[in-house]
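Q: Two folds, back to back.
A: First:
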Amino acid sequence: MGEADLIMRDYLTSKERFADLFNGVLFEGKQVIRPEQLQDADTIYRIENIGAKHTQRTRDVKMKMDTGVVLRMLAVENQNHIDYAMPFRCMEYDVAEYRKQLQSLKRQNRLLARQQKPLKFWNNAAERLCGVRKEDRLSPVYTICLYHGERPWDGPVNLHDMMEFGKDTDDMRQFFADYPMRLYCVNEQKDFAYFHTELRELFLALQCRNNKENLKCLMYQNEACRSLSSETVEAMCVLLKMPKLWENRMNYVHKTEDKEEFDMCKAMRELLEEERKNGLSQGIVQGIAQGVTQGRSSGKVEGAKNKTRTVIQNMLERGFSDEDICAIAECDLNMIEEVRGRFK
C-alpha cells in the first residue's frame, strides 16, 4: 500500500469523516449514518486458496453500524492508482466478510444446540446438517471504492466488465450474475456540497493538484481553509505532493480553546511566493551562466558582463538586497554600485 492510500486509510478511521463519506456518496449528504452508530471492526480476513494455505487479506477501513434494530457492515477501499481487478477484489472482500459471519453463526448455533436439547434447537435435519437455521440472517455489507488518483478511471466498474463473452451467439450474457462496485472518483465530481466535514476541502484541493493557481484561489476564497485540522493538512500535503508544507506547518498554526488549527491560505501564499523567488533566482543564475558561456566561447567577455549588469538592474528593480544580488549574480558591490549609478 502506497503512502497516499495509507494516509487516506488513517484519515477515514475518524467516525465523523467515515460517516460523512457514506452519507455524501450514498445519500447526497442526507445524514442517514451517524458517527455514534459506528464501531471499529476487525479488518483482517482469511481467504481460502485451493491446495494452499489460507491467505490473509486486510480491508482499508471497516466499521459496524448498529442502529439498535439491525447491524450493517460498512467498508472503504482506497485507491490512488487504477486497479483493473478492483470489482473482483471488492467482491472477494465482501464474500470473505459473509463467510466470516456464517462461520461465526454456525459455531454459535452448535454451541447453543449442545447447551439445549438438539431436538428443540433444530427445527429439522436440514438445519442440523448445514448448521444454519431457517430464520438466521447475516449482516449486509456495503463497500465504497474511493479513487483519489490523478488519472481518469478507465478500469471496470463491475464484474461484468471483466468478463469475455465473445459474440454471445448463445445469448448467455443476460444470465450472468453480475457484481457491481460502488466507485467514487474524486477527480470526476463537480460538486462536493454533499460533504459536511473537511472531506469537502480535501476533495476540492485534490481537483486542483495540477493547477497551483486554482489551488491558490481555493485556499484564498474558501474560509474553511483558514482553520483546518492537522489530519486534513497532513492528508493534503501527502496527496498534493507538497511535503514542504507539512514540514513548515507550525508556521501556520493558531490555537483555539481545545485544538490546533492550520491556516492553509497563509501557507499556500508563502509557499508560492518562495517558489516564485526561487524560480526567479534560478532563471537569473541560468541566464548569467548562459551569458558567460556564450561570452567565453566567442571571446566576448564584455557581453557576459553586460548580461550581468542587466540581471543586476532587474534584481534592483524587484527589491533584492545587495547581499542577495552578490550571491545570485556572483558579482561584487562595485558592479552593483555601477549599475545603480548608471540607471538613476
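A: Second:
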Amino acid sequence: MPAEEIPEGSVLVGTDGSPMAERAMDYAVEEAHRRGLGLHVLYAFPWAAQAKAWEFSPPPELVTTGEQVVAAAAERVDKQWPDVTVTNRVVVEDPASALVEASRHAALTVVGARGQGDVADPLMGSVAQKVAAHAHSSVVVVRGETPPDGPVVVGMDPVEGAPEAMEYAFEEATRRGARLVVVQGAQDDAAFPDFPDAVRSGHYDANASEHARVTAERLNEWHRRYPEVPLELRLVRERPVRALVEAAEGAAILVVGSRGRGGLAGFFLGSVSRGVLNRAPLVAVVRARPEPVAD
C-alpha cells in the first residue's frame, strides 16, 4: 500500500460496516476533531492468496460493498464534523495486515473490538488483537460506550513507570479538560503497607513503602509538566488488570502501555494490556518507543 494513499499523521480507522465499527468510527472522528487531524477510513477484505497470486480479480460486488461502506462513512463524517478532512481506501488484503501497515503513517489507529466476521463473545476479535499487538502507532480498541465527561484512567507500571502511556494520558486529559486517575495495582501487601486504596497525589502516609514513594515522586514530576490536569493516584492491593478495569468504570478512556516490567517493546502485548482489552469498553494501547541502538 503506497504511503501517499494514507495522509501522514491522520487518525486511521478500520471499518467493515458492522455496528462496532460504527462505534469505532464515531470515536475516531471525535479524536481527529480534538487533535485537529484528518481522518483516514480503511476498508480491507481478504481474497484467496492463490487468486491474488494468479491475478484473479475479486467479485465486483465485494469491491462495491467496500466502496459503499467508506463512502457512507465519509458522508456521515462530513455532515457531523465538516472541519475534519476525510480520506478513504478500499484494499483487497487481510484487514489486520492492511491496518498494521497503514499505521506506519498514522498518529493513531482505531479499531472496533469485533467485526462482521468475529463470533459475538466477550473476547476481542482477531483483527483487533493483531492490530493492538503489532501496529506502529498507538491503538484505541472500541468495545462499548463511555461517558465523554468521565476521567481519563492510566495504568502506571511499578517498575518502569510506563512513560509513553503516562504522556499519552496527560495529553488526552489536557485535550478533554478531564481529571486523570493514575492506577497502580499490586497483590503484594508489602508494596503498599498501611496505605489506603486511593490517595490523592501529594498526600502520602509517613509509613508508606519506598516503592510507593518512588511512584509518588514520578507522578509529581509528570504533574509539574501538566499542572492544569486534576490528578488522583490510586495504589491498590489488587491484580493490575482488575484494578484497572474497576477504575475504568465511568471513565472516558483507559490508557495502558503495550508492555510492562521490561517486556520487549513493539512485540506482542503484555498480560495487562491483553486483560483490559478483553474487559474495558475503551482502551488506548500506547506503543513504547524503541530503545536506541548502541554503537
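Q: And?
A: Residues 60-80 form the longest helix (21 residues).
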